[in-house]
């Protein structure tokens, strides 16, 4: 049994981490969040020591260490811009870090983590659960077994509408979330580069507070992508079903069905990490570079090749 701590335990994604820790028969010794709406702990680890102040959490971790109780892993579910600091906290305390995506916001943050990872001998793991989804694995195997010289045509559309609260939270601040492409798209870019190879060219057509779209030229595919949190971009047929989310990936016009099968992917991620097969800095770095480049690129508008949804806002 391994000992865990969680930073950001009141967050949206934290229950999946709590479930994963529980499902893999490990223990949660300490948890931190500035917000105290953490009744979810009663369902998983009611005996966990909970703190709303980092200083007291830090002191507790140190006290455990001095008494001979080692924290093996720190799971990080905090806002994107804090990941880097919290990963370093874990490594300095001789624990491996398990961090939600995006691992960090910038490529140079990855390189800095390589140094402290080397200094401490501890590991940084990123939750990249799409790599463990059966449909995505099947697609990767199909592409790998196919024509080595074929260039695939891929469309990625991900619309997940958000209310006004979004822009008044850290997610609406570019410096804290990294923007739309980083906040809701980084795991898709990781998946696409994992399957179709490295980025050869990264073109941005549109980048606003609520929408981003562009073209990724990969080694084995041309990807037209469109990401949005704007409800107005949801297709009418989806709205009529009272849904606020639309997700589609097509390869050469054929849709890849992966709407199911997400329920246990965090647990699967933890199983892989605990067995020594988690996704580390090398795996995370490609998508971090891609979303950084999207963030700083000058959008060209509806010129040349672009996703058809770009017409909705051009």
What features would you highlight for this structure?
314 residues; alpha/beta; Rossmann fold; Dihydrodipicolinate Reductase, domain 2; 2 domains; six-stranded parallel sheet; six-stranded mixed sheet; 11 helices; 12 strands; 36% helix
Tell me the layout of helices and strands.
Elements: E1 3-7, H1 14-23, E2 27-32, H2 41-44, E3 49-51, H3 54-66, E4 73-76, H4 83-92, E5 96-99, H5 107-120, E6 124-126, H6 134-145, E7 152-160, H7 174-177, H8 180-196, E8 199-207, E9 211-218, E10 221-228, H9 236-239, E11 245-251, E12 254-255, H10 265-274, H11 281-296
Parallel strand pairs: 1-2, 1-4, 2-3, 4-5, 5-6, 7-10
Antiparallel strand pairs: 7-11, 8-9, 9-10, 11-12
Helix pairs in contact: 1-10, 4-5, 5-11, 6-8, 8-11
The total number of structural domains is 2
Residue ranges: pLDDT <50 for 5 or more in a row?
Answer: none
- State the total count of DSSP E strands: 12
* Strand order, sheet with most strands: 3-2-1-4-5-6
Shape: globular
Q: Give the full name of the CATH homologous superfamily of the largest domain.
A: Dihydrodipicolinate Reductase, domain 2
- Order of SSEs: EHEHEHEHEHEHEHHEEEHEEHH
Calculate Rg over CA atoms. 20 Å
Task: Provide the CATH architecture of the largest domain.
Answer: 2-Layer Sandwich
By CATH, the topology of the largest domain is Dihydrodipicolinate Reductase, domain 2
Percent in strands = 15-25%
Sheet having the most strands: 6 strands, parallel
How would you sum up this structure in a few lines?
The protein is 36% helix and 22% strand. The chain contains 11 helices and 12 strands.
């Amino acid at each position: 049994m391994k000992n865990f701590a969680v930073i950001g335990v009141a967050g949206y994604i934290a229950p999946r981490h709590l479930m994963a820790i529980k499902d893999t028969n490990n223990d949660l010794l300490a948890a931190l969040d500035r917000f105290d709406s953490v009744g979810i702990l009663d369902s998983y680890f009611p005996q966990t020591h909970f703190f709303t102040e980092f200083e007291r959490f830090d002191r507790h971790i140190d006290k455990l260490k001095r008494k001979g109780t080692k924290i093996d892993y720190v799971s990080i579910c905090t806002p994107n811009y804090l990941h880097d600091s919290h990963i370093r906290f874990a490594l300095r305390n001789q624990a491996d870090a398990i961090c939600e995506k995006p691992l960090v916001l910038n490529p140079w943050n990855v390189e800095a983590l390589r140094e402290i990872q080397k200094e401490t001998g501890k590991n940084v793991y990123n939750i990249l659960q799409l790599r463990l989804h059966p449909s995505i694995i099947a697609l990767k195997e199909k592409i790998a077994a196919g024509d080595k010289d074929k260039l695939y045509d891929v469309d990625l559309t991900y619309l997940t509408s958000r209310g006004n609260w979004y822009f008044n939270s850290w997610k609406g601040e570019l410096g804290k979330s990294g923007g739309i492409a980083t906040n809701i798209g980084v795991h898709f870019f990781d998946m696409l580069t994992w399957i179709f190879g490295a980025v050869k060219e990264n073109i941005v057509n549109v980048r606003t507070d609520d929408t981003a779209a562009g073209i990724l030229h990969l080694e084995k595919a041309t990807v037209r992508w469109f990401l949005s949190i704007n409800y107005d971009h949801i297709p009418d047929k989806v709205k009529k079903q009272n849904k606020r989310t639309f997700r589609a990936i097509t390869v050469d016009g054929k849709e890849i069905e992966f709407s199911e099968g997400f329920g246990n992917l965090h647990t699967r991620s933890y199983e892989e990490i605990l067995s020594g097969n988690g996704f580390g800095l090398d795996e995370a770095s490609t998508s971090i570079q891609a979303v950084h480049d999207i963030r700083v690129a000058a959008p060209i508008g509806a010129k040349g090749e672009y996703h058809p949804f770009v017409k909705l806002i051009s």
